Amino acid sequence: MTDSPAAARKPRPGLGRGLSALLGDSIPEEPIKGNPTSSSGVRMLPTSSLVADPNQPRRHFDEEALDTLAESIRTRGLIQPIFVRPHGQSFQIVAGERRWRAAQRARLHEVPVIVRELSDAETLEIALIENIQRQDLNAIEEAEGYARLIREFGHTQEALGKIVHKSRSHIANLLRLLDLPVPVREMVVDRSLEMGHARALIGAPDPEKLAREVVAKGLSVRDTEKLARTAKPAPKRKASDSRSEGDPDISALERHLGDVLGLNVRIAHGDKGGTLTVGYSTLDQLDMICQRLSGERI
User: How far apart (Å, rounded) are the C-alpha atoms in residues 83 and 22?
Assistant: First the structure.
């Protein structure tokens, strides 16, 4: 006995729940008055009837890449539809703003779209997933998207990890970037500073000054970590704690625990024991620490 096509169909890998439903092989029709829908769920709409989502996570669009895409669209047309939702008398773009911008440059009067009724949370989820899968977001844009889902829609870091198929530590490390001053975050956005460099500057005194030095000298991530360590005021240590200073094993353990928790971890070890310090900057991070210590499921 052979399986039916519906039973044999498997979920697409790497997709969150919202995007998986949106991109399913069988797209159900959701007719909107005055806009007839084809059997595939794709319809043509005037390019001018689409509007960008002001809250969409992607902020930076490479002008040269847009021109290249526009030329391709001008020659071959827009093959992949844009995903939108009703928005008053127009349609707000959920996924595909880059294609829409390029279509405008190519002077297309109509573009193929798929219309769905979506909540604000679902819209942000789908926009995040699509951009992450295309690697279109810089680290700050991705972090801001996660922060908004946590702040406005009550998502946990674990839930976000399942939606975008990323580890919780990856999400936590990105969220820590938002603690950096705006000028440093802008360096990450324009890619003059890599994520690894930015992470090394979290918690350092005057990270903006250090970031400018990193860019000017073209320092590696390892050199940036050394720069940040030397810039920090030396903590007061007891004589018994001096053994841990510069201990590569202790430093490696600090980095490992920091990556697991997504927080700053410091270890002071001496002959009679020592202390483990975990730094946090938000109540959500404190709550996460408490839940882990109490053994609750996060």
Answer: 9
CB 201 within 8 A of CB 180: yes
97 in active site:
yes
Which residue in this structure is represented by tokens 């526009």? Answer: 70
Q: What's the gap between Cα 298 and its chain centre?
A: 20
Kindly give, in sequence order, each residue whose CB lies less than 8 Å from that of residue 270, ignoring residues fewer than 6 positions away.
238, 240, 241, 242, 243, 244
Q: Which residue has the tokens 């940040």?
A: 228
Domains of the chain listed by start with CATH number? 12-125 (3.90.1530.30), 238-298 (no CATH)
pTM: 0.52
Q: How many CB atoms lie within 10 A of CB 87?
A: 13
Q: Which one from 97, 144, 225, 254 is the annotated catalytic residue?
A: 97
Smallest CA-to-CA distance from 247 within 282, 211, 223, 274 is with 274
CA dist 133 and 165 (Å) reads 10
Q: What is the pLDDT of residues 63-121, one digit of tens each?
A: 888 888 889 888 888 888 898 999 888 999 998 888 898 999 999 999 999 998 888 88
